[in-house]
Amino acid sequence: MASELRALAAVSAAVAPAMAYARFATARLAPGLPRLGALLPVLALLPFLPFAFSSIHLRTISAFSLVWLCVFKLLLLAAGHGPLHPSLPLVRFVACAALPVKVMDDEKRRKPTSRRLAPEFVLSYAAKAAVFAALVSARCYREGMPAYAVVAFDGAHVYLMLELFLATAAAAARVVLGAELEPQFDRPYLATSLADFWGRRWNLMVPAVLRPSVYRPVRARHGAAAGVAAAFLVSGIMHEVLFYYITLDPGCTTGEVTAFFALHGACVVAERWWWAARRRGHGAWRWRAPPRAVATAMTLAFVTGTGSWLFFAPVTRSGLDKAIVAECEGVVAFLEEAGRKAAAAASLVPS
Known about the structure:
Layout: H1 2-27, H2 33-45, H3 56-79, H4 90-98, H5 119-137, H6 147-177, H7 194-201, H8 205-222, H9 224-247, H10 256-280, H11 292-311, H12 313-318, H13 320-348
Helix pairs in contact: 1-2, 1-3, 1-4, 2-3, 3-8, 3-9, 5-6, 6-11, 8-9, 9-10, 10-11
């Protein structure tokens, strides 16, 4: 744990000046090739930083934040688009560039922002952390579960792990910036379609960068269907890159994850076509939409079924799932020991 904290400090010490340089270097340059040229040193540095971590979780989260989101944000900055702008205050620029967060637009903000975390936020994520710890503890029973339960178990594990890590980054950013942030997840277990799941509920920092960088440019030239397919294809490729950072084994990047996202992109296009046909159709095309509960069940069944087939297959085949669980168990044990020590220390303090 101490070595990972040192690595975190070293990576932070490299990222902060790199993002500060990106802000000042682009401030006097017009969007286009001049900005891109100025950003090349930063773009070349970022892919190497996650290798500082030996922890699978920290290496993965840093690769997601720096190699995917940050690189795409900087490329958008070079083109004069996206959430970053040289006029932003330095601290906000650095935080928004390096962390998987997005500051909420003024028109979406409903109340004054505060640096304090809302009690409901803390309670919600405390409950999710408890459920995640219970899942980690129950992992030993996974082998005896039926296939459908294994898929649900793994899906819940991935969802809670991602949301807890991203929420930690968001909480730190909110305390530092004192700004309201866009939600990173919005109850994906309530999605009523694939477009709803991927576009409005699951890991929303990804569509926030894929829309301006991939979907809109492709849509402008080739139409909405091509834009959707291109965005999912790029997402699949970037997930393959993340799998390399997770495993450090090029042999684990088999293309199955790319196929998973390409399949979902094609299905989202088919969904859009079906909705359009229903709106303008007659007779047989005037099918009623299924009830919300049925639509949610169908959506989650498709996501988990195809995920078990294509997304989780390389993970389980390589034994990576066991390594991830072992690391989670180590973190849970560390937190339990820290809690016991804190409780013991508190009992020694006179009231």
